[in-house]
Amino acid sequence: MILNAHITPMANTPDPFSQRPQPLVGQPIAAMGQGMRTLVRQCFALLGLALIPIGIVIAVLTPVLPVGLPIVILGVALLGRNSLWGRRWMEGVLSRHPSVERFAPNWLMKLVFAREKRRLRS
Predict the structure, then answer these.
(1) Taking the C-alpha atoms of 108, 112, 116 and 117 in order, what is their torsion angle to the nearest 10 degrees?
(2) Which residues of the chain have pLDDT under 50?
(3) Using CA atoms, how far apart are residues 34 and 52, in angstroms rounded to an integer?
(4) How far apart are the first and last CA of the chain?
C-alpha cells in the first residue's frame, strides 16, 4: 500500500532546508565602521594640531638642530589630510600670509592640499 501517492513532487520549488539564512547585510556594521573611521581621522587631526605647537617650541629650544621642523611637517600633514576644518584653516593662513607658502616644499603642498605651490607675484 502506498501512503504518499497523493503527494506530487515539487520540481520548481526550492527545498526550504537547503536554503541557508541570509546574513543581515552590514548596514549597522557599515555605519559603525564609518563612525570609527571618522573618529580615527579626527584623532589624527587633533594629534596633528597638537604636534604643530609642540614642534615650534622644540624648534625654538634647539636652534642648531632642526628637530622641530619634521614634527611641524608631520603635524601639518596629519591635520591637512584628516580634517576639512584643518585644511580650511591652513588655506586661510596661506591666503593671509602668502610668503609662508614659499617655505613649504612642493611635495608637502601636493600631500596636504593636493595642489601645486602658488607663485608669488613680484
Answers:
(1) -60
(2) none
(3) 27
(4) 107
Q: Which three cell numbers stand for residue 80?
A: 591637512
The per-residue pLDDT for range 61-78, each reduced to its tens digit, is 998 888 998 999 899 889
* The pLDDT value given to residue 3: 55
Global pTM? 0.63
Q: How far is CA 9 from CA 18, 57, 71, in A?
A: 16, 83, 75
Residues 6+ apart with CB under 8 A from 117: 101, 104, 106, 109
For residue 121 the three cell numbers come to 607675484
Amino acid at the residue 121: R
